[in-house]
Design a protein that fits this description.
about 20% strand, 17 helices, five-stranded antiparallel β-sheet, Rossmann fold, alpha/beta, about 425 residues, Hypothetical Protein Yjia, Chain: A,domain 2, seven-stranded parallel β-sheet
Amino acid sequence: MLVSGHFGAGKSVFVQHYMGEYRGGGLAVVVFSRTRSPLDLTLIRGTMRSIGRKRDLVVDIQIDGAREEGRDWQTTFARAVRDAAHSGAFDRMVVELDPSQDPVEVARLAQAACAEASPSPAIAIAANGNGSASSSATAGAVSAPVACHYRIIDAPAFFFEVARVDPAALTTEVVARRPWLAFTEFQSQALRTADVVVLRATPDEQFTQQHVAACEQFIRLMQPAAHVLVRQSDSLAWEEFAFAGTSAVATALAAGPRDAAAHPAFPATESWLLTGRRPFHPERLADVLFAEWPELVRMKGMYWLATRPNIVAALSWAGPSFWSGMAGHWWSAIELKHWPIEGDERRRIDDVWEEPYGDRRQELVVVGAPRISGALMLALRNAMLTDEEMELGPDAWLQFPDPLPDITAEMDEEA
């Protein structure tokens, strides 16, 4: 199963819900990411542990990381698919795509990789959606069913930056001021190969039911054959994951290689990973978050705030959509008796531990136009505590003015 969507659409949450509803055997999950930030991967692995699927496989493929090491994501992905198919341990694979990837290209790579694997039960790179294993082996090769493509769409962001945009109005000058709009053509192309579209929408005073209807109408115009699910929550019943029929991706694959020149290019972006072992000063961080960054495409991850030292704060910024909330407690704030004794989770704690503040840290992925990197990254680094402020100590940090929303009050009280 291919899961695609724009930045901040909710792809990882969708994958987690799918895992919770999955009724088949072994499940392999591939997550494409921009940098070495493990946030989405950590959430998916946590879901696997919580539902007892300990034998499932999760593979993280870092697009930028592979490029830096002289490899490409295509080679890494093909090897992961071949290994999973050869093992015979999995009857389905879920692939969470990066927004820059063409679903048809990814499906073509998966199909070719399965064909190269040794004879073994085939891995269903999105079976027909009935939840049963779709194992099939041919003499000398393994073939994979063609992928079913789920497109996840955040309705408010989609409406304000895509559905109401006149493509003729996207002049060079307009795109330079609002690079998010440059994604319109690329999103539209990906939408045309979707089999199921999950439109995540929660109507309110600013984003009404009429706006939701406009988004749904736009989607049906772009891809009349798609099954559109409008949901206020992220949960879907298992029956709603089912897909029967000829996949739009399968149709595109059957048509043969596509003309690369005719396929819209993904707008030029760069990714950066902000890390640090100093907390943010709440006032200076607020100045950064409340400022306008028109060339910022995506920012997400976890952060450490000086005035809320026990809380893992999460942040998600995608175009016009912004959210910040609590993601749990730092292990440093949890009694040792509640820690995992051994296993992968304990090893991951040990890997990030650094005295005197343990696992408290900054880990934010930033995606945007190349020319904003210097200013934004400098602003974020300057928002961390200075040497003098660090010397004041945690008790003094609690007294810093904090203009940020009090979103973690209940968890602070519990801690």
